[in-house]
Amino acid sequence: MKKTILYVLIVVVLIMLAGCPTLINPFDLPDDPLIANEGEPFTLDLTKYTDAVNINDVIYEVTSGVGATEDKEYVWDKPKFNEETDGVEKVTIEANNNRGRVVSDTFTIIVNRPPSTPTLIEPDDGETVNLPVELEWNSSDPDNDELKFHVYFGTDGNVNQKQSNITVEHYEIDDLDQEDTYYWFIVAEDEHSAKATSDTCSFIYNTTPKNNLKLNLIGEGKVFIEINNKIISTEEPTTVSHEAATVTLTPKSINNNYIFGEWDIDKSHDIIADDVAIFYLDEDVNATATFKLKEYDITLSASPQDGGVVSGGDSFEHGQEVTVVATPNEGYEFSSWTDSKDDTVLSTNPTYTFTATEDKDLIANFDKKTYILTIDKSGEGETEPATGVYGEENEEPWTETLIATPTGDYEFKHWKLSTGETIEATTTEIEINEDITATAIFELPKFEITASASPSEGGIVSGDGSYELGSDVTIVATSNENWAFTGWYEDDDLVNTNTSFTFNATENRDFIAYFRSTKLTIDSTPLSGIPILVNGKEVMTPYSTSVNSGDSIEVTASTTLMLNLENEEELGEYSHFIDEDDTKMIFIKWADNSNSNTRIFDGNNNDSYSIEYEVKYLMKTETWPEQADVDDSATNIVFPDRNWYEYEHKITLRVPYETKVKDSGDDVTLKYWEVNGEKKDTIDPIEINGEQYGECEIVIDGPKFIHAHYDGC
Asked: For the domain with range 119-205, which CATH number is right: 3.40.1190.10, 3.40.640.10, 3.20.20.70, 2.60.40.10?
C-alpha cells in the first residue's frame, strides 16, 4: 500500500513538472551592454537567458525598443546609430510560457559605427614609381575606437592580403620583381570588427631611373606640366618623377586679381611667350611659380590747378587701402572728389579712403571762396538788414551792422550766429570772413508758475513750469489715499476749488494745493485689540476708516467689557482651572476728555482718537498636588484663591517652602512656580521669623493662572 501511494505521488509530481506554469528564475537578459555594428544584422538567442521547464512553450515579444523577435531569437536587421541617444538603445522583451506566467527583462545595445572609408593618399592613382613604394592612407573612427588596417596588394586579378593588423597609416613595399601595373586597397577595422574598405588604386612599377621635378606655387594660380605630350595641372605644390625628358611649365592665374610674376628654377631654362618655361629633366629640379596681386595706378589732379594741392597717389596692390587728401589754397575751399572717367562724385570729404580694385584718375575740385551773410529771425520782430542772403558776389571778407527790433509783446533775446557765438546787444557789428547765418531771436515774455502741496503727504501737483505770455496753464491736484483736496490758494486766498484749474499766463504766480486728512483712527488704551461698534458693526481697535466731507459714522465703546483672553484649559497637565472671563474693561472717557461712550464723527473730525479704559485682570492660584496645605489666611502667606487686579499692579505671592498633603499627610517641598503654563526658574527659600517660604513676583499685565508646584521630599 505504501509503495502504491509513493508511485502515485511520483506520477503527480511528474505531471505537475511537465505542465508547470511557473518559470524558475525565468528570464534574465545580460546586464552588460551588447555591441551591435551599424548596418550589420544583430541576433540574440533568447533561450540562453531563459530557465523554463519546457522552453518550447515560451513565446517572446519585444514590448519596447528597437528590433523584433523571430521564434526564439531577438533580431535587429539593420542597426542604426541614433544621434539623440548617442547610439544607446534600451530593449524590453516579454517572455510568456503560454500558461499565464509572463515576465519581462531589459537589456542595452550600443550601436558601434564603422570606421570612415580609408582615403588613399600616396602614390597617386596610375602614377609611375620606383622602389621603395610607400603606400599611405588615412582613416578615422567616429567612436574613437583604435583601428587596425589590412593591406591588399597585387597585379590585376591577383590582389591578396599583403599585411594585416597594421596600426599605422603607411606601409612600404620594397620587393617587386617585375615591371607591371599593381593594384591596392585598404580595409580599416575597429575594436568591434566593424570594417570599411577603400577604393582600389593602381601604380606602375618602372625600373628606369627617374628624376624628380619639385614644383612650388606662391600666390593664387596653377601650372600646367607637359612631359612627352602628357599634360597635368596643379594648384598645389607637387612632385613629378619621370625619366629624362623635356618639360614645359605653363603658368595661369586662377583669380582675376592675380597675375603671374616670375619663375625661380634651379636649372638652365628658356622662357618663351606667355611666361612659359622649358628645360630638360635629366636631374632633380626645383621650380617655383610666383603669382602676385595686380597693381593699380592711382593718379591725382586739382581743378582748378591753383585751387589746392593733392597727395596720396601711387601704385597699389589689389585690395590695398588708399587714402588721398585734398588741401585747399588760400581763398579756395574743397568741393568734392570726382572720377575723371564720368565725373561721378566719389566723396565730399577732403580725405577720401577707398580700396584699390582698378586704375583710377581722381580729380580734387575746389571752389573760389565767397563770403555770404544770411539774415534770419525767430519770433516777431524786424531786422536790419531784412531777412535774406547778402554778399553772394563778395570774394573778400567784409563787415555788416545788425539791428534787431521786437514787435508786439515780443522781446529781443539775442543774435545767434552759425559760428556758435551769441550776441545779446540789439545792435552789433560782425566780420563776415566765412559764410555766416545770423538769426535774431524774439520771444514772448515767460512767467514762472509754481505749485506745491500742503501738507506734502496729502497729494501731488502737476502742471507748473515756465509759460509764455498768453498761453493756457492747467495745474492739477491729485489726492493721496485718505486725503481730500480742499482748494487752490494764492497768497492765502482761495482762488479755485476744482482739482484741475486752467488760467492764462500773464505774470509769475505761486499756488498751494491744500489737502485735508479723511482718515479717522479709533484706538484704545492701555490695550489695543478691544471690540467697539462702528455703525452697529463690531470691529477691533485700532480701527481706521476714511470719512469724507458730508459723511459721518457712529462709534460706541462698551461701558463694561468682560473678555476671556487666556484659554485656561491649555495651561498644562496639572491645571484644574475652569475656563471663564478673565479680563474686565470699564469705560472711563475718550482721550480728548469726552465722557460719552457713543460719539458721532464727521468729515471735520478726521484725526486719531483713543478710548481710555480701566483694565482689570483675574488672577487665580492653586497648588500641585491640589491638596498641598497652603492657608492664605495664615501669617506671612499671600496666595489668594482668585482676585481681580488693575493693569500693571505688582504682587508678591508667598507660600510655605515645606508643607503637607492634606489627605495623606505626606511632606512636600516647593520646587517651582508655573505662570500661565510657563515654568519659572528653581527658587531658593527665604526665611521670615524662622520659617521658610517660597516667593514669586507677579506683574499683572494680563490674566494670571499660577501653580505652586510641590514635590515629595
From this structure: 2.60.40.10
Polymer length of the chain: 713
Average pLDDT over residues 165-182: 87
List Cα–Cα distances, 511 to 471, 481, 508, 633, 701, in angstroms. Answer: 17, 22, 10, 77, 53
What does each C-alpha distance from 309 to 299, 302, 305, 315, 680 come to in angstroms? 13, 7, 8, 19, 106
Q: Which residues contact 180 (CB under 8 A, 6 or more apart)?
A: 155, 204, 205
Name the 3-class secondary structure at 306. Answer: helix
Sorted by where each begins, the domain ranges of the chain are 7-112, 119-205, 211-293, 295-368, 373-443, 446-517, 519-614, 616-712
Neighbouring-strand partners of residue 563: 583
CATH class assigned to 211-293: mainly beta
Q: Which residue has the cell 615591371?
A: 179
The pLDDT tens digits of the residues spanning 649-701 come to 999 999 999 999 998 889 999 999 999 988 887 678 999 999 999 999 999 99
d(CA 212, CA 232): 15
Residue labelled with grid coordinates 597609416: 169
CA-wise closest residue to 446 among 463, 424, 471, 480 = 471
Least confident segment among 291-300, 351-360, 546-555 = 546-555
> How far is residue 680's CA from residue 614's CA, in Å, rounded to a whole number?
29
pLDDT of 12 strictly over 70 = no
Can you give the pTM of this predicted structure?
0.38
Dihedral angle at the C-alpha atoms of 486, 488, 493, 496, nearest 10 degrees? -90
Output the nine-digit C-alpha cell for 475: 495745474
Match 588708399 to its residue by C-alpha cell.
322
In whole angstroms, what is the distance from residue 510 CA to residue 513 CA?
Answer: 10
Nearest to 595 by CA among 553, 630, 559: 559
Task: Compute CA distances 14 → 5, 10, 11, 20, 603, whole Å.
Answer: 14, 6, 5, 10, 105
Distances (CA, A) of 493 to 295, 472, 484, 488, 490: 89, 21, 18, 8, 5
